[in-house]
Structure formats: structure tokens, C-alpha cells
Amino acid sequence: MSKLTHLSLTEARDGLAKGDFSARELTQAHVEAVEACRSLNAFITETPEQALSGADASDERRRKGNAGVLEGIPLAIKDLFCTQDVLTTAGSHILDGFQPQYESTVSANLWAAGAVMLGKTNLDEFAMGSSNMTSYYGGVENPWRRSGSNEPLVPGGSSGGSAAAVAARCALGATGTDTGGSIRQPAAFCGIVGMKPTYGRCSRWGTVAFASSLDQAGPMTRTVRDAAIMLRGMAGHDPKDSTSVDTPVPDYEAAMTGDVRGLKVGIPKEYRIDGTPAEIDAVWKQGIEWLKAAGAEMVDISLPHTKYALPTYYIIAPAEASSNLARYDGVRYGLRVPGETLDEMYEATRGEGFGAEVKRRILIGAYVLSAGYYDAYYNKARRIRTLIANDFKAAYEKVDVVLTPTAPSAAFGMGDKMDDPVAMYLNDVFTVPASLAGLPGISIPAGLSGEGLPLGLQLLGQPFEEGTLMKVAEVLESAAEFDALPQIIS
Amino acid sequence: MAVDKDTVARIAKLARIRIPEEQQEALTGELTEILNWVEQLSELDTEGVEPMTSVVAMSLPQRQDVVTDGNCADKVLKNAPEGAHGFFAVPKVVE
């Protein structure tokens, strides 16, 4: 394995700037790493030619003195972002052969900042899942294994391919999307950093929609500083997304002063859940100690509606999904299964094109939106969403950030929990509440479980306070000194 | 709240998804389990609480009512499973 792939994005940026190596050399090393890790199934589409020609163009721009903030950095793109003329699947059979004729705003921003595309990463079908097992293109293997075991584990989901690719040193960073935890939970399972920005910080235009009031793109990287650099390249106002916020994108690195003295950190009592493994509690306590030692002040807080967040999410997200996924009808793109009439063609196409989890969610969504149930389910859930958002508002009058575990367990085996949808949904118990409130969150690797698997800590922030989150996350990162490598490359 | 097989068939029809007869039974059980689980929301009193419409307080932006895109019928049709004469083609809908 080449040394260039073991650099952080920050180190690679600085090395390119100093002329220690070219974008071509850096990209070549990553193209080879992608090939070497094919057994993980992290990529649905590899784009090595595009990567190398992009690297040459980047070297040329640098020679002319036009280097962007991500100049020459090879990245992987979750296959939920539309990429012009490059197959975009959303992990679904129903988008067979779809080659978008436009580029998503987030990926376009990254290319404008100088980044280079290595390929499109695997994901749960339409980002619906917490294991990456619902992908039509097959599950992704976590680069990590339990000590002394060869059982393949899931990388988490839905951004499982992105998390695995970054953990296995195939890419310096990857885009993810987070609707209820799809960046943070796989980041925790794979021992990397993943940030979901505030709703509205990154444009949703050109990203395949799952639940539009929740979906948000964010960076997945190996260090907090890498995430700060990458988010700056992704974010920004976009007139094509009416929910994209028109406030300037700050230089997040500038906020990373390392000084958290006097900062107030909320510890929500409702996140202590019966049945949570002792090592999850232990890593949380350790995080509290690290921040105390750095001079931050811990404050016990209450977020009283926490227990209602997951069931609320599993009404709102499917309701929006059933509406968003109505567009896959066999007429405009992707798969068509013939039928005698137009309705039969729709039913045959959607029956064959969607996988089991996607069908379940569309049906739940159609049910809770149907006449007679709309008020009892959908409006009820929207009211409770208001209460959950108010919990956080009240808490942020007393604290600056909130510290919790990211997920209730370490990575589990491929195939586990597949026969019990509700058990699978519980993976997102710590990530969903902030999603419903539209708040930013970041997961950082904090330690290893007794079985040698990464465990994550989550920090939640106030709207558009990504810089504060980066600052606190970096302090935790320095204290954790997480330098373990996954088995596939160690 | 338990759903029965007829309800599943009715929602599947609404959602235009063909569910083979042999899968309807299992799906009925799964949907019932999920709906029973979300039922816990009913214990919460939400009288007088406004349903959330937007997580970020903002008003919908407006723009000039002018053409900003277009003249790209070829691109629009590029991914169509079937197209004819510059249109999407579907099975016959009128006799």
C-alpha cells in the first residue's frame, strides 16, 4: 500500500501545495487502492480515467496559480449524487442505466474547488437503511473485523460505501447524505469522522431525494480538520434549492482554536437507554472526562421527547419518501417492465424495481398519508417534531453543544437484524432526534470496543454552528488519539 | 393498529406497486409491527402544538419570473426507456 493513501486530506493538501507530489501521483495511488479493495464492494462505479484526467487538469491549474481549496484531492461520491454522464443508481434496480445529464450542486462545488472523482460509492437503496444491506448492488463489507474473527461486518448505512472507502484508505474523503443518521452511524462503525451539517447548509439540488425535509449532504473523512476543509468545498447557497440558506460559508478551520475552556457541554439524561452495552456508556463517560480535562463545563440537560423521535421519524420519512419516489414510473429514466396498460406498466416496473425495504417504506408512507389516517399519523408526527425541536431550543439556552454516543452498538454482522425492521431502525436512536430538529452533528472515532471495533462519539450543535462543533470535535480527537487501522490495511 | 391483507393490497394499488400474492402475508405482518410500534405516539398530548413545516425559520425565496433553463429536449429524453418524435412513449391510454 502506497504511503500517499495514508496521508490525511489535510496532509495531502499541504503536500500538494509544497510540491512534494503531484495530483497525478496522489490520484494514481488512490486509483490503485480502490482496485485493491474491490472485495469490500464499496464502489458501484469506479471512474479511474476521469480521476486521472481530472488530476492532470488539477496539476495544470496549480501551475497557473489557480488552486482551489480542494485542489487535486481525490474523493469518492455517494451514488446518490447525480454526476453528469456517469451512472447514478441510488443503489436501486429501478435506476438501471441512468446517466444524469446534469451535475448535483454539491459535487459541482467540489469539482469547482479542484477535487477529483474516484468513483461512486455503494449505499442502502435510496439511502433507506442502517447496514448498506438493502443495496441492489449487494452489501458492503466493513474494513474492520472483530479481533480473532473473520466474520464480515456491515459498515453501517446508508453511506456505507463512502465510510468503508475512507476507512480503507481508498479515498481521502467521501460525500455522504444523512436523513436520520446515514453519515454519522457508518462513520462510527468504520472509525472515521462524519458530519451532518445544519439542514440548508448544503444544496440538495441533484441529490436523489429520500425525505426532503431531512436530507442533508456532508463530509466523511479521517480527521476533523479534513471534514472542515471538505465541508467548506461542499457548502454554499444555491438558488436551485429553495431550502438552501443564503449565509456565507465560513472558513471552518479558523474556528478550530483548540480552546474549549468555559464551553458548556450538555449531557442529555434521556440518551441513557436501558440495554445499551456497557462499553458504549464507558466511551461516553470517557468523552465527558476528556472535555472536562480541556476546561469545558458539563451540564446535565433533559430532552424529554427523545423517546418519541424514532417513531416520529418513521412516519415523516416514509411519508416524504412515498411522495418523492412516485417519480420512478418507468417513463422518464431507468427500468421499465412492460404492461398491457399504463397502470400495469407502472405497477410491474415499481414492483420489480424497488427492493423490500423501499417497498415497505413507500407503503407505510402511502398509508399514513391516506384519507382517514393523515391527521392521526402524519400531522401527529409533525406536531411531535415541533416538540422535539423545542427540546433542543430550550437546551441550547443553557449549553453550547451536546455530547452523546453515536450509535447504540459497534458494527454487527452482515445479515443480522434483516428479518426485523424495527430492530434495524433502533440503530438510529441517537442520531434521529437532531435530524428531526435540523441540527448539525458530527461523529468522531473515540475508541475500540472489547472486540476491537471502532466506537463513535457524537456532538450536536446549534444551527449553523458547524465551526463550534469542529472545534470541540478536534479537542476530543486529540484526546482520543485514535490511530488504530482496520485489518484490511494493517 | 393491525392492517389486513386487503388493506395492504389497497395501499399497494395506491402506490402503484405490484405485490405478488405470496408476499402479501409477510408484508401484512411487517407493516402491522411497524404501525404498532409508532402507535406509542398517541400517548403524547399534542393539543395546541403547531405541526412543523420547516426546521429552519426562513421565508420562501422568490425570483424573477423569467426562463432560466430549457431548449434541451434531447437531454430530457436521453434516459427514457422509450421515446418517439421528441416525446416520452407509454402504453396506449386512449382507444
UniProtKB/TrEMBL annotation, chain A:
**Which PROSITE patterns would you find in this protein's record?**
AMIDASES (PS00571)
Q: Which residues form the Amidase domain?
A: 25-469
Reaction(s) catalysed by this chain, per the record, are:
L-glutamyl-tRNA(Gln) + L-glutamine + ATP + H2O = L-glutaminyl-tRNA(Gln) + L-glutamate + ADP + phosphate + H(+)
Q: Pfam families from the xrefs? A: Amidase (PF01425)
Which GO molecular function entries does the Swiss-Prot or TrEMBL record give?
ATP binding; glutaminyl-tRNA synthase (glutamine-hydrolyzing) activity; transferase activity
Q: Does this UniProt record's set of keywords contain ATP-binding?
A: yes
Superkingdom of source: Bacteria
Q: Which residues fall in a coiled-coil region?
A: none
| Example GO BP | translation
What is this protein identified as?
Glutamyl-tRNA(Gln) amidotransferase subunit A
Q: Which organism is it from?
A: Denitrobaculum tricleocarpae
Which taxonomic lineage does the organism of this UniProt entry have?
Bacteria, Pseudomonadati, Pseudomonadota, Alphaproteobacteria, Rhodospirillales
Automatic annotation (TrEMBL), chain B:
Known catalytic reactions: L-aspartyl-tRNA(Asn) + L-glutamine + ATP + H2O = L-asparaginyl-tRNA(Asn) + L-glutamate + ADP + phosphate + 2 H(+); L-glutamyl-tRNA(Gln) + L-glutamine + ATP + H2O = L-glutaminyl-tRNA(Gln) + L-glutamate + ADP + phosphate + H(+)
Tell me which positions the record assigns to the signal sequence: none
State the EC number(s).
6.3.5.-
Provide a GO biological process annotation.
translation
The UniProt record lists the keyword Cytoplasm: no
GO molecular function ontology, one term from the record: glutaminyl-tRNA synthase (glutamine-hydrolyzing) activity
Task: Give the matching Pfam families.
Answer: GatC (PF02686)
Source taxon at top rank: Bacteria
Key words, A-Z: ATP-binding, Ligase, Nucleotide-binding, Protein biosynthesis, Transferase
Query: Does the keyword rRNA-binding belong to this entry?
Result: no
SUPFAM superfamilies found in the cross-reference section: Glu-tRNAGln amidotransferase C subunit
InterPro entries to which the protein is assigned, alphabetical: Asp/Glu-ADT_sf_sub_c, GatC
Q: Where are the transmembrane segments?
A: none
Q: Gene3D superfamilies, per this entry?
A: Glu-tRNAGln amidotransferase C subunit, N-terminal domain (1.10.20.60)
Question: Subunit arrangement?
Answer: Heterotrimer of A, B and C subunits.
Q: Which family does it belong to?
A: Belongs to the GatC family.
According to its UniProt entry, what is the function of this protein? Answer: Allows the formation of correctly charged Asn-tRNA(Asn) or Gln-tRNA(Gln) through the transamidation of misacylated Asp-tRNA(Asn) or Glu-tRNA(Gln) in organisms which lack either or both of asparaginyl-tRNA or glutaminyl-tRNA synthetases. The reaction takes place in the presence of glutamine and ATP through an activated phospho-Asp-tRNA(Asn) or phospho-Glu-tRNA(Gln).
The record ties this protein, via PANTHER family, to: GLUTAMYL-TRNA(GLN) AMIDOTRANSFERASE SUBUNIT C, MITOCHONDRIAL
Which NCBIfam families has this protein been placed in?
Answer: gatC
Tell me the protein's name: Aspartyl/glutamyl-tRNA(Asn/Gln) amidotransferase subunit C
Q: Which gene underlies this protein?
A: gatC
